[in-house]
Design goal:
By secondary structure, this protein is an all-beta fold. It is 0% helix and 53% strand. The radius of gyration is 13 Å and the shape is globular. The strands form two sheets. Strands 2, 4, 5, 6, 9, 10 and 11 form a seven-stranded mixed beta sheet that branches. The relative contact order is 0.32.
Amino acid sequence: QVQLVESGGGLVQPGGSLRLSCAASGSIFSIAAMGWYRQAPGKQRELVAIITSSGSPKYADSVKGRFTISRDNAKSTISLQMNNLDPEDTAVYYCNLKYDRNYWGQGTLVTVSS
């Protein structure tokens, strides 16, 4: 049974930073690809960043150079460091684990507003 729990969302001003974390339960974390997705109001869920089991990251063009994804296999956690945030980054952010299927967390809201 895989469970994902996100934390770290909140309200931040444009240009500010936030760090999201996702804690995973289950025994497959170290061999699974992990990622962050987001869904803004009225829009489809989109990929933000993914990281392979070996630690190779990939980013959406919209966040390259501003966001950094990382993972700690010993702690079964992933993080998303978000810098220089823009109002367009406002969304619910979801942690994702890909193995036999997609697993999702409950989401954490990030609001970028002055």
